[in-house]
Task: inverse folding
């Protein structure tokens, strides 16, 4: 009986011990820290953010907030819905902290970019200024050249002016001489008409003391040695044509020989009788006939080049 | 008289039981109140995100915030106040994420533009100096 009792006690004790052990085990299993699904991922993202040298120091408050949310999410929770909710919040808060840190980082970088931009602008302006300086120098050099050219032009103009003045003077002098001669400018040249007062009617030799006009012509020809002279004799219509032709020739020759006698080279002189052709007035009146009896001295215009 | 008063006395405990039962039922019906502060916080966070052009820079997050807020409202209608509170808080977290992502996107866009224009400036200068020796 005793033995039976004893063994019974042992069996009962073993059973109790086993039960206690299994209860303890079960309790241990129930209280084991099982983190809800997703909490580890949130922690991983947060750790990555906290170890990023560019981001960790920025958005400190948001990171702290996210850390608290992750810790809450990591707490074992039997209510699956609540556990998932906490993980959700933790995940979003970590992402929010990361985005805020990135925004701050970008803003902080902006100062550097602004400095870069300012330096680039400064460089650009320096380059522009240098280019402008070069341009100015070039322009100055060009200006100097232009001034030189202008000076030369001015001096040339001065010369021209002097020349013009002198040619003006010459022209004025010529005009004065022509006025003295009472010559008439025409296309053929200067025409000096010597009236019949030079000659006795029907004769070809010059009247003595009537050579005043011819002396002026000599003076003119001496002053303008490049000019040559054509002497043309004319008569009125009285008498035969033949007679008048010869008379006109002889009168022209008389004038020519007077001029050569005064030192004018005969190569500059030509004499021609034109008879009664080319009357300048009516032969019916005495006045008209007197006008037709004449010797015309045509002083050639100087060659164009020497003008 | 005596019999009547005894009868009246007997009905009193029964009434008390009935009143208590009604009170208990009422207490059950009005459970926790609607999570009004959480809902308002979510609405404000969404409004702030929208002011910051989150629709352009963080469309997914903003849309999710709207969805969660709608779920919270539905839960309130169904008297599931705990669920409503959770959805409201999730909506707010989503809206705040949308705002943060928008800030980051904008800041990066500005920096990108500055980098581009700096690059252009440098390029122009190089070209300019190349043209004018």
Result:
């Amino acid at each position: 009986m005793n033995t039976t009792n004893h063994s019974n006690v042992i069996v009962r004790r073993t059973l109790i011990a086993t039960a206690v052990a299994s209860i303890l085990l079960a309790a241990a299993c129930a209280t084991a820290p099982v983190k809800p699904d997703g909490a580890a991922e949130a922690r991983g993202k947060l750790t990555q953010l906290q170890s990023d040298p560019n981001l960790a120091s920025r958005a400190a408050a948001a990171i702290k907030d996210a850390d608290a949310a992750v810790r809450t999410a990591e707490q074992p929770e039997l209510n699956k819905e609540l556990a998932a909710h906490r993980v959700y919040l933790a995940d979003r808060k970590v992402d929010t902290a990361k985005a805020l840190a990135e925004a701050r980082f970008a803003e902080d970088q902006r100062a550097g970019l602004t400095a870069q931009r300012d330096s680039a602008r400064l460089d650009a302006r320096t380059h522009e200024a240098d280019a402008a300086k070069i341009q100015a120098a070039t322009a100055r050099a060009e200006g100097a050249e232009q001034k030189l050219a202008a000076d030369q032009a001015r001096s040339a103009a001065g010369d021209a002016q002097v020349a013009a003045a002198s040619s003006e003077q010459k022209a004025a002098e010529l005009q004065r001489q022509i006025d003295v001669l009472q010559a008439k400018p025409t296309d053929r040249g200067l025409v000096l008409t010597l009236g019949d007062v030079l000659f006795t009617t029907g004769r070809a030799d010059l009247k003595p003391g009537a050579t005043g006009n011819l002396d002026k012509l000599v003076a003119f020809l001496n002053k303008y040695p490049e000019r040559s002279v054509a002497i043309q004799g004319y008569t009125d219509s009285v008498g035969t044509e033949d007679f008048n032709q010869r008379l006109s020739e002889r009168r022209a020759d008389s004038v020519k020989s007077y001029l050569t006698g005064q030192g004018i080279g005969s190569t500059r002189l030509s004499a021609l009788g034109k008879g009664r052709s080319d009357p300048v007035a009516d032969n019916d009146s005495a006045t008209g006939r007197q006008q037709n009896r004449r010797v015309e001295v045509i002083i050639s215009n100087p060659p164009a080049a020497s003008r | 008289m005596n019999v009547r008063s005894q009868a009246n006395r007997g009905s009193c405990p029964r009434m008390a039981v009935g009143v208590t039962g009604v009170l208990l039922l009422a207490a059950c019906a009005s459970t926790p109140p609607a999570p009004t502060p959480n809902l308002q916080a979510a609405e404000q966070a969404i409004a702030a995100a929208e002011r910051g052009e989150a629709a352009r820079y963080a469309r997914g997050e903003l849309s999710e915030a709207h969805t969660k807020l709608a779920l919270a409202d539905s839960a309130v209608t169904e008297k599931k106040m705990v669920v409503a509170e959770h959805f409201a808080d999730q909506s707010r977290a989503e809206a705040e994420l949308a705002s943060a992502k928008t800030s980051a996107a904008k800041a990066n866009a500005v920096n990108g533009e500055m980098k581009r224009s700096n690059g252009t400036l440098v390029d122009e200068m190089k070209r300019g100096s190349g043209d004018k020796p």
